[in-house]
Design goal:
heterodimer; A: mainly alpha; globular; B: alpha/beta; Rossmann fold; Alpha-Beta Plaits; four-stranded antiparallel sheet; 12 helices; 14 strands; 36% helix; elongated
Chain lengths: 297, 325
Amino acid sequence: MSASTLRSPTSTATDGVGRNTVARSVRAELFRLRAWPAMWATLGTWFLLAAVFGYVFPYISYTTGSAGFSTEGQPAAALLREILPESIPDVLVQGTPLFGGALVLVLGALVAGNGYSWGTWKTVFTHGRLRPTIGALLALALIVAAVVVLTAMLCTIISVTLATIESQPLVWPSATDLLRSAGTAYLVFLMWAAIGFALGTYARSAALSVGLGLVWTLVVENLLRGVGSALPLVQDVTAFLPGTAAGSLVGAVTGAGAGTPGVVDVISGPRAAVTVIVYLVIAVVTTGSLVRRRDVN
Amino acid sequence: MTDNMALSTTTDPPVRTDSAGIDTEIVVATSALTKRYGERAAVDSVDMTVRRGEIYGFLGPNGAGKTTTLRMILGLIRPTSGSVRVLGRPAGSRESSSSTGALIEGPGFFPYLSGRANLRTLARHRGLSDRCVEEVLDRVGLVDRGDDAYKSYSLGMKQRLGVAAALLGDPDLIVLDEPTNGLDPSSMADMRALIVDLARSGHTVILSSHLLGEVQEICDRVGVIANGRLVRESAVSTLLGDALLKVRGVPQDRVISIASDLAGENGFEIDGDAVLLDLPPERAPDVVRALVAAEVAVSSIGPTERTLEDVFFEMTTTSAPMKGL
């Protein structure tokens, strides 16, 4: 074999951060991520939890007349309405601030952190650092978008099935409500995924970044909000935290005080949206800065 | 101390430059390259030159600074001071990195993907076709095992896949850090043949290896680094020097006396029951004649060469305590 046959026509193309070169890295990352069992396990857990907390538990409460932690005190008609197609926008977004956000944070941390543990970033970065990193972030953004769409489809299938079982008319939500809900879910997921990716890059380890991220999302923020009810200074600080922003954004869509864990009404919807976007930008910029400046060992 | 200057007066090819005035014959040039971690200099003022089309052996004890130097050449580590130019461009620039392939400190792949899928991922990152993947798999003998999961590969297969990744895109410069690590003898021979073939087809190879026999066999020039400093850089033949005459005979004191007369006081050394004379092999008849005239019972005489291992130990043990190879 001659050496010249190894070079493809495109191999001498510039390897910078142009649109085409980034698109190559997006393709590469999607190619390897779609075959990754850990990604499917993480996302499968989200779909399972979304179905269980969004439909299975409310339906059991409705059929048995028992009250769950999120359904206590609600009349049967309200319980039924929650699992019908008209409530798809609420169900789609209600799990994102707590376990949904935690799961995509885990995904982001795994995508970035495992690359350092396996040495794959070292292999890829030999031909440039920023381009593959942007490619991985954009691939993650596409996956998260697909997750939101698939979740909406899952909600539709389950709610239509339950409506048929309960002989209820199919009342669809407005396109505006559905889009607002999907956009909110996407924004919240994007923020947590980017934060997870930044943590994975910072720690250069999947285990450490996943651990730190989960402790923050599931423990620290909730503790701070608890302490904040007694200490006004802490309460002021919690208003700026990512979990509070995500919960408030979802709360603005679903109506705060619905009893859903993680959904709050600490700050207004627009301010929450801005805060979430700011965290998203900070996470992406931090990742880029770390990748550019640090040695690859 | 290097003998760059001496070499440049005798063996340097004519300087060729491209349209930008860059010397196209120099593939890697470092200048006072230094990397410090706190007070410790992992790499200290290294001036290293790798020429187009050569196989450059990069040697040194563990912790001497080999991998750190190679990572700076690849742009993975930023120097504390000094500079690296690869193919006339700063290390890590898109022009230099797009023409460089590397296997550095062991292969790094996704364990859940097959060998083929791993290479396809890398190929997609660089805009290369799947055909390129098949070609490099064929080149390292992994076509039949390409669909097996990477995590099921033996150490030798992982190394070969790492070399395949380095060959993707037919780069001008290929940096191989211990490429024969974990390979069986047959695969090692195949790997050496592959490296020689790459150089013959115009590629430049930097080979870091602890197998000095392997380096002596296939490398054109070597650089030896110890304690972060490049203690020698020269052609292998220059490093090994001329062949010596090895003489065994009794009584040995008469052999030594004759050796001193013929080769000079500093022209011989005692190696066990033999005496090594710094004389070319064609002087053997003169030596035998003198020995016989002095009534020495000569049991053997013949040419012998120093090995790279001998030279390596001399250089690294005099410049720094050995920490192991």
